[in-house]
Design a protein that fits this description.
It is found in: Cytoplasmic vesicle, Secretory vesicle, Synaptic vesicle membrane. It is a multi-pass membrane protein. It comes from Apaloderma vittatum (Bar-tailed trogon). It holds the Pfam family Sugar_tr. This protein has about 425 residues and is of the alpha/beta class. The protein has 4 domains: about 40 residues, no CATH class; about 40 residues; about 180 residues, MFS general substrate transporter like domains (Growth Hormone, Chain: A, Up-down Bundle); about 100 residues, E3 ubiquitin-protein ligase SopA (Pectate Lyase C-like, 3 Solenoid). The protein has 12 helices and 14 strands. Strands 1, 3, 4, 6, 8, 9, 11, 12 and 14 form a 9-stranded parallel beta sheet that branches. Helix 6 packs parallel to helix 11, helix 6 packs antiparallel against helix 12 and helix 7 crosses helix 10. The chain is elongated, with a radius of gyration of 31 Å.
Amino acid sequence: GWSFSMGSAYQFHSWRVFVIVCALPCVSSVVALTFMPESPRFLLEVGKHDEAWMILKQIHDTNMRARGQPEKVFTVNRIKTPKQIDELIEIESDTGTWYRRCFVRIRTELYGIWLTFMRCFNYPVKDNTIKLTAVWFTLSFGYYGLSVWFPDVIKHLQSDEYASRVKHFRNEEVSNFVFNFTLENQIHSNGEYINDRFIMMKFKSVTFEDSLFKNCVFEDITSLNTYFRNCTFVNTTFYNTDLEQYKFVDSELINCTFFHIRTGCQISFDDDYSAYWIYFVNFLGTLAVLPGNIVSALLMDRIGRLTMLGGSMVLSGISCFFLWFGTSESMMIGMLCLYNGLTISAWNSLDVITVELYPTDRRATGFGFLNALCKAAAVLGNLIFGSLVGITKAIPILLASTVLVCGGLVGLRLPDTRTQVLM
């Protein structure tokens, strides 16, 4: 992504190559899955007790070696065999047609999923599920909402600064002149251009208003955010340009000819600095996650999951509040990096504590439900925060700070699982 967005010597000039490179981690994950052991619970469900025992022994021995106790022997006192997967299906296996058996299997599976889901709201995990729901929702809402808000706000600040430096030219009268240089961030009003040639030029954020072009030639022109508003063109030729019809707003063209008009997207990172900047800001924000991951990995067992979860969310909310005073690009980028570094610790500790709070028979269902809720909160956050870009900074900052602090305080009310045995 860095090479693609930064336009360096290693830039991928084909989007297909970029997509292939991005797909490599997914392919690597699929290959890595073939070397992972199967779930012991699944092996017990299908009656493969010996294989389940061997996998548990491998996990035990690896953990003991990491703790410096390789001599400790793995022992099993008893095995509680789960219900066989096809136990309810076997009732229908000898009767009915194939589609009836298929319908019964699907219905039974869906009913089993529903029962497992409802058990996440039964004693003794009901209170934990409600609290985890609040923490997952608030963290996802604040994190993904601000993630989409940050680059757009920085882009908005850049646009305001760029617009403040615009140059105005009024009542120009230019004739028999050859323009062969770049025009950028300019507004030309009430001008007259007679017998002029615009050759091999770039127009960047240039607007012509109420101007007259007579007997002019536009050749090999590339334009970005360039418009002709209420202009008049008389006997003018356009050759090999990207000046499409939508760039002539309320303009009149009299006896004008167009040859080899380039259509479609003509923008490059060299022409559009804001496109480059969005990728660069996202890259810096993602890079800031690395130290947060390292810190959370080193301190997870030392300070505890709850302290890391609640502390990270509260500190993230406080850091959001200081965005109120952000008036420059560098300050906003610095706050983005700080925010991402703090919230990743909360994400890591939340994943761990969620897994440890649910018993084995409800763990996957509970974790899957909370992840689905997380995605719904992310979509809601993107919609709300995205609609506020360029309108006000107060509402997004106060909203993100409030939900993150409240979620962190709720997270501190969860039971500590650091010394508990998994259920």
